Amino acid sequence: MKKGWTNQRVEDNLRKLPVIQDKRPENELYQKVVKGLEEETDRKNKRSWKSWLIPSLATLAVLLLIAVIGQSALRIDYFTTQEDVADTYSNEAKKSEQAEVMEEESQSATSLPAEQSESADEEAIVKEAEEPVSKAVYTDSDKKTAFDVSIPIEGNGYLVPLTYQTENTSERIESTLNQLDDLLDPQAIGLPSNLLQGVTFEIDKSNGIAIVDFPADFNFEDEAFTGNVGTVLSRLFLPLEINQVKLQINGNPGIPIATKGEVIDSLPLKQPGSYVYKVYQKQEDTTPFLAAVPVAIDNDIEAAFYEMRKEEPDNNLKATIPSGVSFRVQKSEKQVSVNLSGPVANDQKTLDMLEAMMMTAKSFGYQKIKFHVPESRIGPYDNLEEPLEVPDGINGQ
Amino acid sequence: MKAVFQDLYKKYHQDLYQFLIYMTKDKEQAEDLVQEVYIKVLKSIHTFKGESSEKTWLFSIARHVAIDYFRKQSNKRKRILDFFDWGERGEQLEDQSILPEEIAEQNEEMRQIYRCLDKCSLDQKSVIILRYIQSFSLKETAETLGWSISKVKTTQHRAIKALRQLLQQEYGEEGDIQ
């Protein structure tokens, strides 16, 4: 019986494609690899020999020229007859000839390395091989939604948003939120604890309501909690079109707010202010994240980008726009256009810069960002000719 | 150096080779490329910062080596086509490469899939090989390709659709299976 091609049939067959093995002995391959490495080293040595010899000759020529110029200057001081002046002119002519020779030599020294640049290319490939990893999240269908669980870090109001994707229904959102304690182990990835550890959620999207239920032993006096709970819940729920949050402890309405000395049973959500994004990395061996840093800047994306140049070592934050990179910004209503120049490459630093700029632009109300860069591809962004949509989230989980 | 090589060989060699042979569809080429991967890896192992896993780092190098090979092949092919002035007709020339024996032994349906895989875009082909043939997780695939997990999912979905359409175009709606 014939059956049509279906996605399932294609997938099943792909999984059944045979294992293809290399039957060469391990040692034979090793010998070839060693030989290849030796040949590369030989090539490099030859290059390095050429690379110092020619610049050295050029330097020698410069020294010689200085000596000649020095001599002719002395002669101008001592002799002032027409003949001497003519002699000086002729020296000048020689000097200019020599300068040309020197320039040619120095040009050949700088352009020398056709081979050297080839070797730089090869090294670039090896470097590039550690392909930059995107931190941006784009939901891949209209049926899906993304929400942020924000982890407060060092610094007042500083957060690392972790984005989760789920189907855009109350049930799926609720189920994902209630699995957070299993899904998320902040310490294991170099982050402080999740403010909402042990909390359970009920979501009613149709009425825009969420019930947040804290365990009986929850520490409401924790400074990180009192300082950030409003922002964390606002950042979580407002993008999900939930505007009302009911707070309870073990099913009983109301939670104590230590700073106010009162019990509240609901929390007004408000749009968080503006953020710029920087790289947060607790230690060298922990995962780097893009962190949201609150800024008191309104409607000035350029000023926000300048903020992104600032290092904050005390808060374990690294600048996302390197000082060597300069930028020009043009704005329209929903789109920002950024012209970047300086050390821009297809590497992690540049990708972090681009994604930090996109998230910052999003925080400032822009929907698209167009980068003018000398690279055609940076990380997953392989069509930089076109403006990019700002991401749905960051630090995808 | 030998110990590093032996360790990598033991852990990843057959998978690396398999990845390259499905990428290039050429046994000899895959042998040369796998050798090139080791040379690059041994030269740059000191720069490996552990930001990704060793496995995904190795495969991302393998993918770049393959891409580099395709780029050179494409330039060579273009020069030949220009020289003979074949233009578009040259692009339509049938792929006559010899099937690896492991594929030749399979049924017609598997051979069709193997042939059509080569007509997918490089990104689609990479995702399919990593996800279905190498059984990489979404996270491993994302790390290897330097993409977000959502991009892997989207590309995977599109790749399967593209492959299905190619199979329908090349071999008819039903395929050749009785």
Automatic annotation (TrEMBL), chain A:
<feature type="domain" description="GerMN">
    <location>
        <begin position="280"/>
        <end position="373"/>
    </location>
</feature>
<dbReference type="Pfam" id="PF10646">
    <property type="entry name" value="Germane"/>
</dbReference>
<keyword id="KW-1133">Transmembrane helix</keyword>
<dbReference type="InterPro" id="IPR019606">
    <property type="entry name" value="GerMN"/>
</dbReference>
<feature type="transmembrane region" description="Helical">
    <location>
        <begin position="52"/>
        <end position="74"/>
    </location>
</feature>
<keyword id="KW-0812">Transmembrane</keyword>
<feature type="compositionally biased region" description="Polar residues">
    <location>
        <begin position="107"/>
        <end position="117"/>
    </location>
</feature>
<protein>
    <recommendedName>
        <fullName>GerMN domain-containing protein</fullName>
    </recommendedName>
</protein>
<keyword id="KW-0472">Membrane</keyword>
<feature type="region of interest" description="Disordered">
    <location>
        <begin position="98"/>
        <end position="125"/>
    </location>
</feature>
From TrEMBL, chain B:
<dbReference type="InterPro" id="IPR036388">
    <property type="entry name" value="WH-like_DNA-bd_sf"/>
</dbReference>
<dbReference type="GO" id="GO:0006352">
    <property type="term" value="P:DNA-templated transcription initiation"/>
</dbReference>
<comment type="similarity">
    <text>Belongs to the sigma-70 factor family. ECF subfamily.</text>
</comment>
<keyword id="KW-0804">Transcription</keyword>
<feature type="domain" description="RNA polymerase sigma factor 70 region 4 type 2">
    <location>
        <begin position="111"/>
        <end position="163"/>
    </location>
</feature>
<dbReference type="InterPro" id="IPR007627">
    <property type="entry name" value="RNA_pol_sigma70_r2"/>
</dbReference>
<dbReference type="GO" id="GO:0003677">
    <property type="term" value="F:DNA binding"/>
</dbReference>
<protein>
    <recommendedName>
        <fullName>RNA polymerase sigma factor</fullName>
    </recommendedName>
</protein>
<dbReference type="InterPro" id="IPR000838">
    <property type="entry name" value="RNA_pol_sigma70_ECF_CS"/>
</dbReference>
<dbReference type="Pfam" id="PF04542">
    <property type="entry name" value="Sigma70_r2"/>
</dbReference>
<dbReference type="InterPro" id="IPR013249">
    <property type="entry name" value="RNA_pol_sigma70_r4_t2"/>
</dbReference>
<dbReference type="InterPro" id="IPR014284">
    <property type="entry name" value="RNA_pol_sigma-70_dom"/>
</dbReference>
<dbReference type="InterPro" id="IPR013325">
    <property type="entry name" value="RNA_pol_sigma_r2"/>
</dbReference>
<feature type="domain" description="RNA polymerase sigma-70 region 2">
    <location>
        <begin position="8"/>
        <end position="74"/>
    </location>
</feature>
<dbReference type="Pfam" id="PF08281">
    <property type="entry name" value="Sigma70_r4_2"/>
</dbReference>
<dbReference type="InterPro" id="IPR013324">
    <property type="entry name" value="RNA_pol_sigma_r3/r4-like"/>
</dbReference>
<keyword id="KW-0731">Sigma factor</keyword>
<keyword id="KW-0238">DNA-binding</keyword>
<keyword id="KW-0805">Transcription regulation</keyword>
<dbReference type="GO" id="GO:0016987">
    <property type="term" value="F:sigma factor activity"/>
</dbReference>
<dbReference type="GO" id="GO:0006950">
    <property type="term" value="P:response to stress"/>
</dbReference>
<dbReference type="InterPro" id="IPR039425">
    <property type="entry name" value="RNA_pol_sigma-70-like"/>
</dbReference>
